[in-house]
UniProtKB/TrEMBL annotation:
Keywords tagged on the record: Hydrolase, Signal
Gene3D superfamilies in the cross-refs: alpha/beta hydrolase
Residues passing through the membrane, by range: none
Name recorded for this polypeptide: Prolyl oligopeptidase family serine peptidase
GO (cellular component) term, any one: extracellular region
InterPro entries, A to Z: AB_hydrolase_fold, Esterase_phb, Plant_Biomass_Hydrol_Est
GO MF annotation terms: hydrolase activity
SUPFAM superfamilies xrefs: alpha/beta-Hydrolases (SSF53474)
Length: 331
């Protein structure tokens, strides 16, 4: 029988469930030898149903995020790996018009986080509906118009998670998609000492208003055919103007204030009409400090995700992000 207890949440008591199912299976096996054909068929059917329930349980994910509401009413979801003392924390920021629960479902970040010993939090942006946004500078929507201090909010989530769940505050990582990626890069630019590394997919730093203040490891993924946040910069589909992705790359490279070795790798294993160019800027020790993925033909999409023809399968965003974050863990 399949065992999915290795990826579980404390509130679900997965090991206990698995023990119960194994006990039922063993009883059925013993009964099988002592019964007639009709009873054997019935026992076999029940065994198959139990196996199916386990498979459905595993497929549905044995992970349950816990929702936390802060004193100011803002909230986040969090999943914490079992048996890991002071796990590093990744704060995953949803795109504009999304929310934490939606990001937890669609990003595919929770399972790889727990498998690698990371805790992961999904905070909600601000807004009057379930369609939330972040203040990343000039974007986006109500959060930017009301000048919500979302940089402080994300750091408050990290502080709260350390206090409630024992995460390692000195090992904080931030990732985001689109508007969430913009905020991740804003945090890196404005509060470089607070984070170990950040990752942005299809979201650029607001260079017109914000400049990096110190060296922070940054991973950035961007499609050359992105219509929402154009790769070359300029006006996007919703009327906002953005910096060019490569200008943001240059700004973070300049903030490193040291010589880095550049390498280029072409990835085209999916044969999906797109091609990914991976540029790695490594320190003298070989550690990647800045990694930039130019997805030729890619759109405003999460690499490896399930939506749209402009979503490349050449790379998997969670896999690449966690490999990068792992390289920057404080020991």
């Amino acid at each position: 029988m399949a065992d999915c207890s290795s990826v579980s949440a404390k509130s679900m008591h997965v090991p206990s469930l698995m023990l119960l199912l194994r006990f039922r299976r063993n009883r059925l096996a013993l009964a099988y030898h002592d019964q007639g054909e009709a009873e054997k068929e019935s026992a076999a059917m029940v065994a198959r149903l139990i196996a199916l329930l386990v498979l459905l349980f595993c497929a549905g994910g044995a992970v349950a995020e816990t929702r936390v509401t802060l004193a100011d009413g803002r909230s986040y979801l969090i999943a914490v790996p079992e048996g890991v003392k002071q796990p590093p924390l990744v704060v995953m920021l949803h795109g504009g018009g999304g929310n934490g629960a939606q990001s937890a479902r669609s990003s595919g970040m929770t399972a790889p986080a727990l498998r690698r010993g990371f805790a992961i939090a999904y905070p909600d942006g601000s807004g009057r509906s379930r369609m939330k946004t972040w203040n990343a500078g000039h974007c986006c929507a109500r959060a930017a118009l009301t000048r919500m201090d979302d940089v402080a909010f994300v750091l408050r989530v990290a502080d709260d998670a350390a206090r409630r769940f024992g995460t390692d505050r000195s090992n904080l990582f931030v990732a985001g998609m689109s508007n969430g990626g913009m905020l991740a890069e804003r945090i890196a630019a404005e509060r470089p000492r607070e984070v170990r590394a950040v990752a942005s997919v299809a979201g650029v730093l607001d260079l017109a208003r914000i400049k990096p203040r110190g060296a922070v490891p940054v991973l950035h993924m961007h499609g050359t055919e992105d219509e929402m946040v154009p790769y070359a910069g300029g006006r996007g589909a919703l009327g906002l103007t953005y910096a060019a992705a490569e200008d943001v790359l240059t700004a973070f490279l300049q903030a490193q204030r040291r010589g880095l070795t550049k390498t280029r790798k072409v990835i085209d294993q999916a044969r999906d009409g797109m091609q990914t160019e991976k540029f790695t800027y490594a320190s003298s020790s070989g550690r990647p400090e800045v990694v930039f993925y130019r997805i030729v033909g890619g759109g405003h999409a999460w690499p490896g995700g399930s939506r749209g023809r402009s979503t490349t399968r050449d790379i998997n965003a969670p896999h690449e992000i966690f490999a990068f974050f792992k390289a920057h863990l404080r020991k």
